[in-house]
Amino acid sequence: MKRKTMVITPKRDSLKLCLLGAFLAMLLFFGWQSGFFSKISPVLERLQYDELLSKAVFWQEDEEDEQDLWDVFLGYNPTKPDEQLVANIYLDRENIDLTSRSQMVYQEVAEEYYWDSTEALSSWDEMKKKFGQVHLSDEVQVLIYHTHNAETYNPTYGVSKQEGQNGGVVTASDVLTEALERKYGIRTVHNKTLHDYPNWSYSYNNSLKTINSLLNSYPTAKVVFDIHRDAGYTSKDPTTVIINGKAACKILLVVGANHDNYQSNLAFAQALEDEAEKLYPGLMKGIHIAQSSRYNQQVHEHSVIVEVGSDLNTQEEANYAMELFADVCAGVMENMG
Q1: CB 154 within 8 A of CB 313
Q2: What is the dihedral of CA 37, 38, 42, 44, to 10 degrees?
Q3: Phi, psi at residue 101, to the nearest 5°?
Q4: pLDDT, tens digit, for every residue of 116-161?
Q5: CATH H-level superfamily of 101-334
Q6: Which residues contact 286 (CB under 8 A, 6 or more apart)?
Q7: Nearest-angstrom CA–CA distance, 225 and 134
Q8: Residue 183, pLDDT score
Q9: Element holding 20 (H helix, E strand)
């Protein structure tokens, strides 16, 4: 039986145009309703269009206007936006809930308060035997960043924190970066994004975005260092050592135990300590385990916090410690696998 129902449709081209027009109208309406145009207008007015078009979508760290654009569209400035957008790794700042509020409060002061755990060390030795799948190559292998950028050295700068700035720990990390690349050919990325300003208590949440971004941009990275300095001392003697006739900061390694990568991170920290004891006895102050924290170390199996001296040490002592630590890192990485 032949159906009598008739479906009347416009020509295909006309239908496509209608749908496209409706879609564009909806976009304009929602953009106007959400206030998007008022947000982006000041940024667009400052742009040099010829220059921007010549560079297409490539983001430059020193272009403030382009940073503003990324901030409007994404809510933060990615390290390599063209690669990250393709990889679909953007993290919505409203959905970052990897750290509980109670841990955030702990993390704010955790740098000055640690405790050891004999029980936590029970199975590290087995992990250390398995440790070793890293090979030196021409690809990026070391990532350095700072959860607490403002930390600095009081005798040199007159303050213990340089609020809203990159402090002495960042300068010392430049020395480590340069030494790893110059002496050993180990490609290193040193990220200096501010994470502790204006809200210190959100430092670890902020730096989590950065380290996830870095790991997606540089998936070959085998080592991750979050570099800080210690505090709470009345004398710098406990955080200072003389090596080859010159004063250096002692280095403390900190491992968070509240995550699945804990054992491999601990094994990596122990390997660094063992190598330092062979090359420069006394350089390492030890390893501290924070049982209730993660310090973002859950993102990588070879991630540790590196505490370079205390706020009572000098910048020169911190720089020298990082020169020595570069030798330690290279030795461990050469012996991995």
Answers
A1: no
A2: 0
A3: -65, -35
A4: 344 444 444 555 444 544 444 579 999 999 999 999 999 999 999 9
A5: Zn-dependent exopeptidases (3.40.630.40)
A6: 252, 253, 273
A7: 16
A8: 95
A9: helix 12-34
Residue scoring higher pLDDT (109 or 310): 310
Place of tokens 């809930």: 97
Backbone angles phi, psi at 66, to 5 degrees: -70, -35
How is the beta sheet containing 284-290 ordered, strand by strand? 188-190, 142-145, 223-230, 303-310, 251-256, 284-290
pTM: 0.64
**Three-class SS of residue 43?**
helix
Average pLDDT over residues 268-292: 96
96: left (phi over 0), alpha (psi -120 to 50) or beta: beta
Angle made by CA atoms 81, 220, 172, in degrees to the nearest 5: 85
CATH 3.40.630.40 in the chain, residue ranges: 101-334
User: Would you state the pLDDT for residue 266?
Assistant: 96
pLDDT in tens, 40-56: 666 566 555 555 544 44
| Count helices and strands in the chain by DSSP H and E runs | 12, 8
- Choose among 304, 302, 332, 327: nearest CA to 182: 327
Contacts of 212 (CB under 8 A, 6+ apart): 89, 91, 299
User: How many residues belong to the chain?
Assistant: 337
Strands (E), the chain: 142-145, 188-190, 223-230, 240-243, 246-249, 251-256, 284-290, 303-310
For residue 161, the SS3 value is: strand
The pairing of beta strand 251-256 with beta strand 284-290: parallel
Handedness of CA 111, 117, 123, 128 (dihedral sign): positive
Rounded distance, CA 90 to CA 96, Å?
A: 11
Neighbour count for residue 130 (Cβ, 10 Å): 10
3-state secondary structure of 36: helix
Q: What is the DSSP string of 273-325?
A: HHHHHHHSTT-EEEEEEETT--TTGGG-TTEEEEEEEETTS-HHHHHHHHHHH
In this prediction, residue 105 carries a pLDDT of 34
**Whose structure tokens read 């393709």?**
86
Sign of the Cα torsion 268, 271, 276, 282 reads positive
DSSP state, residue 229: E
Helix (H, G, I), strand (E, B), or coil: what is residue 270?
helix
